[in-house]
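Box S1 | Example of a co-folding query
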Amino acid sequence: MVKTLVLILLALWTVTGRADDVTPGLGQPLSLDTLSLYAITVFPDGRGLPAGQGSVAEGRVLYHQQCAFCHGNTGVEGPAARLAGQDGLISLRDPLRPLRIRKYPILVLSVGMWPHATTLFDYTRRAMPHYAPKSLSDDEVYALAAYLLHLNGLLDKTATMNAESLPQVVMPGRQRAVMGEAWQLAERGLPPPSAAQQGE
Ligand code: HEC
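Box S1 (continued) | Returned holo structure for heme C
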């Protein structure tokens, strides 16, 4: 009986407590400056891309300094993920692929089939080089994205990428992407589905 009473009191106390009473009270609020270090998402349409620019030529130099030893001289040799060409076991342009895939199965997939060029920027900026993520400047990331697009035959060697030009590059994998409902509405100039409809 006493046990039940205690449980009821405890339940009442939890229910009537204010929301901020039930937090553990750990940590400290993030400042906007700190937050901006983490709020770095670049969306498929280019929203979130920073100022800056980088050329294929600059990207080529950076790539050979910081990326080639994991991704291969032309982006296809591995051992880390393949950065150029189509997905698949074989390719006429890349006759050694079956042998490499036998050794590193991850090489069957290619970044060249990603649906959006802007993802190259987001991914490289947040995650690469693998041993030092977020060490590249925005200009360097633009240059590397430009060079990777060049390796995929999508950009001329004289091209330069920035917040305007990068989202305009149409990747071969674009048709494979299925965008969410909110996205489709936005593309047709319609408002997002209301919170009520989403059951929130
Ligand atoms: C020390 C090795 C290493 C270096 C150096 C490196 N990468 Fe990577 N990279 C990886 C690995 C491992 C992955 C796969 C990571 C995963 O899936 O979690 C990867 C994944 C990627 C991907 C996504 C591939 C996919 O299919 O998901 C891109 C794009 C990429 N790297 C670009 C770069 C660029 C550009 C550089 C140079 C600035 C670079 N990497 C340097 C090891 C490396």
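The pocket of heme C is lined by residues 66-67, 70-71, 80-81, 83, 109, 111, 120, 123-124, 128-131, 144 (CB under 6 Å). The chain has a mean pLDDT of 88.
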